[in-house]
Amino acid sequence: MKTQIIYLILLIFTVSCNTTTKKQTTTQDTTNQAKTDTLAVYSAEEVKAEALRAWKAYKKYAWGYDVLLPLSKKGYNWYQESLGISPFDAYSTLAVMGLAEEAKEIEKYALSKDWNQDVYVQVFEVNIRILGGLLAIYDHSQNPKILEKAIDFGNRLLPAFNSPTGIPYHSVNLKTGKTSGDKGKGKGEVVNVAQAATYLFEFGILSYYAKDPKYYQAAKKASKAVFERKSKIGLPGDYINVETGKWTNNWSYLQAGMDSYYEYMFKSNFLFPDPEIQKMWAYSLGKINEYYAEDYQGKRFYACVNMHTGKIVKRSMSLYDAFFPAVQALHGDIENAEKNMATWDWLWNKYELLPTRYLYEADSIEYANSELNPEIIESAYYLHEITGKQKYLQMIDKYWRDMKKCCRNEVAFHAVEDVRTKKAKDYLATYFFAETLKYFYLAAVNNKVFDFNDYVFNTEAHPFKRSYFDKEKAKEYLGIE
Ligand code: DMJ
Questions:
Q1: Is residue 261 lining ligand 1, measured as CB closer than 6 Å?
Q2: Which residues pair with 76 in a beta bridge?
């Protein structure tokens, strides 16, 4: 434990913050206090009961399918064959909630899976959900047969990285290793930056457990390939050709399509400190603050800019970029995290849910749907843990009540077509199990049940215990110099 704390202090200092560690350790006590003092908010038990209800609905109506359609009460698959994604995303949440029987059932299901499926899968999506999910099952259960499944699955993703740049193609066939675009169509040579470089975390864990650097090295090559192609002013574009290494679009932002590229450059260092990646993160954070951040009409926003000029091309925010206050807070930049969070909370209050994309200059909605996404809850949870301020728990309480009011039906929860009308949409995304329910639960549960400082989450909220990963062994197993 002592080693962990010393490591955390060193890491955060290296990445350029000089106050985080102090805040994290001192606020832990405040947070415990805040949680016991809180009587007026929703309870962890309530979230657990809702999670169990939704999970039972998935099992009753959609078992074996990727997702539950909660209005028509049936299952739906992403591809022509099912990958059975929901259970992989649900496991770590059910386990954290202490629902051991349900978690065990998923572990058995994972063991029954044969990944030799003739289906083209999107590398990014299955990495964060299935590989991340399998690794979380292994982390929790320590069942070596689960690790074999994870290694098998990881091996089936690796052929996607055999491109001239090392950036993965969009999709790969799990059986043949052939690459393609979405659902087997086209070449898949153009990907967004999140699809290009969101692998350091899961591939790092896989390398660690398999004692084989090839996974982490493939992920690192992809992240470096994106970073090294930054413009003269230091910004990446948003779409890139994996064969030529040329940008196919020159916008730069924090929104979906770029979000987890940044997230993993930061978070992977908590498990596997890598000086090269740390430098990339410190540089990138500087550019985010320099070019994306703007104070507009008294609020903090992060705009879309041109990667070559830094000029703003669109004043918009997508609900996915609400992950960033969590990153800022974990980095120790509390001031910017709080300003950013305040803007998200303002937008939530305007509509009672977040629209998928909002244009803040025009004060209008671009995409009105809302899909039970977790990011705003994630950020409020981090801020509550790190600052100990009660107002963040109260925000989460409001999000919980609104989501229940607008998205709960007789079997589970559903998305909405339009945040203005709240018209129900027949879809329950797999990340609702992995992320949304987990953050709601963790924000309300006593810190003795789950200590925030002991864990780091992948972008799909699968938690990994920091102390399981020995930093010296990590250098060897991941090939970090
Ligand atoms: C999740 O699948 C992941 O967090 C991903 O990185 C982007 N956002 C969705 C949920 O909104």
A1: no
A2: 67
> Is the minimum distance from the CB of 431 to ligand 1 under 6 angstroms?
yes
Q: How many A from CA of 326 to the centre of ligand 1? A: 14
Both tokens assigned to 83: 């990958």
Domain that holds residue 402: 17-109+315-444
Residues 135 and 176 in one domain: yes
Residue 212: predicted pLDDT:
98
How many structural domains is the chain composed of? 2
Model confidence pLDDT, tens digit, residues 357-393: 999 999 999 999 999 999 999 999 999 999 999 999 9
Write down the pTM of the prediction. Answer: 0.92
The first and second tokens of residue 88, run together, are: 């992989």
My answer on whether 309 and 325 are in the same domain is: no
Verify that 91 and 122 share a domain, yes or no. no
* Those residues with Cβ within 8 angstroms of residue 10's Cβ, 6 or more apart along the chain or in another chain: none
Could you tell me if 43 and 84 lie in one domain? yes
Q: How far is residue 238 CA from its own chain's centroid?
A: 18
Residue 246's SS3 state is: coil
Query: CA geometry: angle at 214 spanning 208 and 217, to 5°?
Result: 90
Q: Is 324 in the pocket of ligand 1 (CB under 6 A)?
A: no
For residue 295, being part of any structural domain is answered with no
333 with 195, same domain: the answer is no
In this structure, which residue's CA is closest to atom 8 in ligand 1? Answer: 320
Q: Does residue 87 share a domain with residue 220?
A: no
